[in-house]
Amino acid sequence: MVSLGGLPEVRLSFERSVANAVSSDGMVVAGKVRTAGGTWHAGRWVFGEGWTDLASTSPLASEALAISANGEVVVGNLVVDSPDLVHAFRWTPERGLEDLNVPYASLLQGVVLQSAEAISADGRFIVGRALVSGSTYQGFLLDTGESLSAEIRGIAHLEGFLGDPAALAGTLELRHPGHSDVIQQYTVTFDGLGRFDLTTPLNGIWDISLHVPRFLKRTICKVPVFGRVQLSLSLLSGDIDGDNEVTLFDFGRLVAAFGSNPGDGNWDAMADLDGDQEITLYDFALLVRNFGRTGDE
Ligand SMILES: [Ca+2]
Ligand SMILES: [Ca+2]
What we know:
By secondary structure, the chain is mainly β.
């Protein structure tokens, strides 16, 4: 449990903050903070940084009620100096605090967006309370038409591999859960520790597969890809011919290249399973360990 405190300059207030919503990784919170002037303002709390007053330019009250999965879009309501009394707002790091009635005025026609109460994980859809024709309150669903990208960060544990993972390239596939059709494919490169990082506009629940030459494919099912996702994948070695099984065909290629070094006529880089630039008994041992195995679908 973490106590979220309040604004650093407001230490003596009995009520200092209220938290209403949290990002998918738990690192960013939206809510309200008591200001030095005693007003509640919409606030955004970031782990390790504390609260920021999102409405510091206004003397009037506001409150953040919802946040996108990546913590970058905050919505809520703010008191306005007009007969409408209160308006829905959106805050982003790039655009700051915006009254939602302004950028989407052409979609509203007699409707005043008074409070934004929830936002979809990808930041595209906002719902809340609207005042319609000045007479009734109704829920609203606003399609902003703008989705946030999601970030997939991962680490590939490459069994028995002693070479530099940065010299390898892998293929990462997104498929709908339980389906075989690949919806999107990305080439991933690794750092020296096998870490990779990519962004995708395809927010959703995905089966994610990683294939790296020499290794059996690894799939993680039903990964919620919103905001920032962290994956850890252990890849088993031995698939020299790339058919996602370790069989006699892989064994045959290893035997044909046995004892070779780069530059030799029978050198086969794929058979160098441990990546030490020689085809030796160590490569053979990796193949034997996984003989008969099949990679994930
Ligand atoms: Ca194979
Ligand atoms: Ca080797």
